[in-house]
Automatic annotation (TrEMBL):
<feature type="transmembrane region" description="Helical">
    <location>
        <begin position="252"/>
        <end position="282"/>
    </location>
</feature>
<feature type="transmembrane region" description="Helical">
    <location>
        <begin position="289"/>
        <end position="309"/>
    </location>
</feature>
<keyword id="KW-0472">Membrane</keyword>
<feature type="transmembrane region" description="Helical">
    <location>
        <begin position="78"/>
        <end position="99"/>
    </location>
</feature>
<keyword id="KW-0812">Transmembrane</keyword>
<feature type="transmembrane region" description="Helical">
    <location>
        <begin position="165"/>
        <end position="189"/>
    </location>
</feature>
<dbReference type="GO" id="GO:0016020">
    <property type="term" value="C:membrane"/>
</dbReference>
<dbReference type="Pfam" id="PF01594">
    <property type="entry name" value="AI-2E_transport"/>
</dbReference>
<keyword id="KW-1133">Transmembrane helix</keyword>
<dbReference type="InterPro" id="IPR002549">
    <property type="entry name" value="AI-2E-like"/>
</dbReference>
<protein>
    <submittedName>
        <fullName>Predicted PurR-regulated permease PerM</fullName>
    </submittedName>
</protein>
<feature type="transmembrane region" description="Helical">
    <location>
        <begin position="30"/>
        <end position="46"/>
    </location>
</feature>
<feature type="transmembrane region" description="Helical">
    <location>
        <begin position="321"/>
        <end position="350"/>
    </location>
</feature>
<dbReference type="GO" id="GO:0055085">
    <property type="term" value="P:transmembrane transport"/>
</dbReference>
<feature type="transmembrane region" description="Helical">
    <location>
        <begin position="224"/>
        <end position="246"/>
    </location>
</feature>
<comment type="similarity">
    <text>Belongs to the autoinducer-2 exporter (AI-2E) (TC 2.A.86) family.</text>
</comment>
<feature type="transmembrane region" description="Helical">
    <location>
        <begin position="52"/>
        <end position="71"/>
    </location>
</feature>
Amino acid sequence: MTKPEQRYSTPPQRRAVDDIARSLRKIERFLLGIFLMAVFTATYFAKDVLLPIVLGVLIALTLSPVVRWLYRRGVPRPISAVVLVTSIAVTSTLGVYAMSGPLTRVVREAPTVGARLETKLRSVMASVEQVQEASEQVEKITEGDGEPGVQQVQVRESSGLLRAAVGSVASAGTALFVAMILSMFLLAASDAIQRRIINALTTLHEKKQALTIVRDIERQISRYLGAITLINAGLGLCIGLAMHLLNMPLAWLWGVAAFLLNFLPFLGAMVGVAASAIVAILTYDSLGYALVVPLVYFALTAFEGQFVTPMLVGRRLELNVVAVFLTVMFWAWLWGVPGALMAVPFLVLLKVVCDHVPALRVLGSFLSDGSAVDPPAVAQGEAN
């Protein structure tokens, strides 16, 4: 019997029940969409509150295996938590203090970078016989110099941007301080929190599954952030040495900047290449020699992104590059730079949950890079 025949042979009561069920499913999807929109809206406006909480949880998840390892060797959890978090805070403070002098000079010279870069590029255009275009630029600049109001507006805009940057740094420092305190408490009471979560569940299967998910999340995020930190340190060292060999000013600062920027997937490398190109053009007289600097920066970051990180991290995480890119773009739009920094750890957490929950297996399959084969699928294929 065909499907149309089955449909028209169905009793009217059954058709009415099916229509109600379909309507209820549509209402359920509609309410789910409204709920997700409400969650995204609340997440956007509650950034100042949620950011230190999420960052503190990530720090705690990263350091939990270390705290547990020290606990097995007789070190109490509160002591190891205080020592680890304090060490990170002191190291970060010393690093910021060491960079404060050069960064202050960079910020002081920032308003003049645009004019200097325009002058340098104008001379380059003149050297390649683009006389007409260079003359038009000179006329525009001459007309702009004759209007003092324009110059004042540019200075005010630059100072406004600098004030916004300083305010952003201060806000990030406050969020980081709160996150450090929160992570200290979470690390000191990590096992107690896990026991409360597990005791809240009813069946033994749910308890085992929850414990497996929590431990797997700790292990995956700790491995990812630890490996990325070591890789970024190596990249920063290589870029610092390359900048020193190319006679770039403050070569060690470029290494530190590369180390920090590389925590931003995709975006960090582009910012580093653009910044190195601008400084190189302002530093060297020859445009050809100046272009070597961003090319070297790009080559090192490309080698790290295409070979080193996939070899050391990709085999463990098996994340889809498209999913990583979309996640970074979404969180960068939602929370800015802090969101982009936390995008990949959040994606790791989501993938671990999807791998252990059968209802989310389709989403987990999308997040995977496809190189790994699902063990149940393998077992079913061998059985057939």
